[in-house]
Amino acid sequence: MAVRIPGINIDEYYQQLGPIEPLIRDDRVTEVMVNGNDHVYVEMAGKVVLTNIKFVDEDQLLNVIQFIVRTVGRRIDEHSPLCDARLADGSRVNAVIRPLALNGPLLTIRKFSRDPYQVEDLIRFGTCNEAGFGFLKAAVLSKANIIVSGGTGTGKTTFLNVLSGFIPVEDRIVTIEDAAELQLHQEHVCRLETRPKDINGEGEITIQRLVINSLRMRPERIVVGECRGGSTFPCAPSASRLRAPSTSSASSAACATAHAR
Question: What CATH number does the domain located at 10-110 have?
């Protein structure tokens, strides 16, 4: 994972990551999950396994979390005990500390993929067959509204990214995400990312607000990283009236549940 952070030497950055440094360097690892100082899990080849890596103590883990959070200009403490952010290389980080994390600090790093999956990859994995992708491509080209639903970690963003690849290169696309993960190859792409509240509880920019704003940007396509809690769906009729088809993902155990939301 090639981390690029202005003003920070790459080797010095890795050294500050303590015992998880080799996991971050290992390209086979797609996600690192730290549950307290003595349980570190990784995802490799789609499987989650427990490693033998441990932190010396809770303080060492907390220092690593504080370092990562500082590099992205954020803060985490007892008054603001959780942080969800994107690293300079595109990796997504979530950290939770006491008092919310009852058994010690929690750290999850979803590493940014330099080589996003293509249609051929998902067919090989058995995610969808060629006929299925043919139908979905036709749906995208006909400007249908599409929702990709699935549970956590099932590959919704990966699938959404592949579907977005069917959008014609000449279309003006606006992407909206909590943490930018989509990797569209088209040139006419406007990327928007939400902003959390600051330390004073102000300045929050939500997905719903960005969707409303995007309608004033003459979009031909709107791609929303994930709709949570149904807050974004009321904007869909407006997008349809402006003939800006939308594609999004939603966490749901079943398609019927996602439709109901």
Answer: 3.30.450.370
Mean pLDDT by 10 residues, the chain (261 residues): 52 83 93 98 94 97 95 88 85 95 97 88 95 98 93 87 96 93 94 86 91 95 80 52 69 64 59
Residue 78: CB atoms within 10 Å? 9
DSSP state of 7: T
Strand order in the sheet with 106-110: 47-50, 40-44, 29-35, 106-110, 92-96, 82-86
**In what helix (H) or strand (E) does residue 237 lie, and over which residues does it extend?**
helix 236-241
Length of the chain: 261
Domain with CATH 3.30.450.370 in the chain: 10-110
- At 119, give phi and psi (nearest 5°): -55, -45
Tokens in use for 218? 């003459």
CATH number of 119-260: 3.40.50.300
